[in-house]
Amino acid sequence: MDLFSNPLGIHERALQARSQRMELIAQNIANADTPQYKARDLDFKQVMNQQLGQPIRATDDRHYAIAETTDSNAVKFRVPFNTSFDDNTVEISVEQSNYGKAAADYQATLSFLESRVSGIRKALKGE
Amino acid sequence: MSIGNIFGIAGTALNAQLVRMNATASNLANAGTTASSEAEAFKAKRTVFKALVNENLTNAGAPYVGGVKVDRMQDDSTPIQAIYDPSNPLADAGGYIYPANVNEVTEMVEMMASSRSYQNNVEVVNTARQLMLRTLELTRT
What is the distance in angstroms between the CA of the first residue and the CA of the last residue of chain B? Predict the structure, then answer.
């Protein structure tokens, strides 16, 4: 952990990705009644791969395997569970639960950032 | 791209849902009206939404790209059922009057749907606001 060149680590960029995801879901909820609107979501893993400059890999047998994605655009269209008569693919219950999850993820990243900040503070004070 | 944009996006949706609710109120208010010709008869108004998918549809740099707007108002295409009522002062030469093509049940459903959508977007704003405040708290830990 390099304290001065990169004090907040990956969490700073993670927070940006989290807020981008929340924005996309907010767009979906806003367009829940728009004919022909296609719901979109962010592929978080792909964003982080781009941010890190190297793919997230399973480097140990006990790691969970993750599917490889090749295209560069991290914003993807959601595949709806049901069809609708106006070609809108927003399913409000799905979006609501995803928004709740995204908000919790955002708070999780915030907690990491908070502990980073308080850690650095402690280190600087030398208590 | 920041959490602040959520307020703009949800704001456009609140606006659009309010227009839809207004249209419903107008439809319900005019449900009992009659006219002496089919052209004059009141037709239920329907809002058609459109996604603000890119900058071309908004002012440059506006914080609500991805939101929604009311594209146009459309007359409901339900045919008007003429009623034979020669004693009515509004009756035409053949004795027919032309009531509005408003279906109260449809309008009530529209009203509930738009109010639910409105609530959803209020909730989106609330959550975003809480997260924003927590992010600001970061400086105090």
Answer: 25
**How far is residue A113's CA from residue B28's CA, in Å, rounded to a whole number?**
52
What is the residue-averaged pLDDT of chain B? 89
Question: Tokens for B14?
Answer: 């609140």
CA distance B69 to B60: 16
**Measured distance between the N- and C-terminal CA atoms of chain A, rounded to whole angstroms:** 20
- Taking the domains of chain B in order of start, what are their residue ranges? 3-140
What's the predicted TM-score (pTM) here?
A: 0.82
Contact B1 A33 (CB under 8 A): no
Which residue range forms the structural domain that includes residue A117? Answer: 11-121
Contacts of B72 in chain A (CB under 8 A): none
Per DSSP (E only), the strands in A11-82 are: 40-42, 75-77
Read off the pLDDT of residues A14-48 as tens digits, 9 standing for 90 and up: 888 899 899 999 999 999 999 999 999 988 878 87
Is A98 within the bounds of a domain?
A: yes
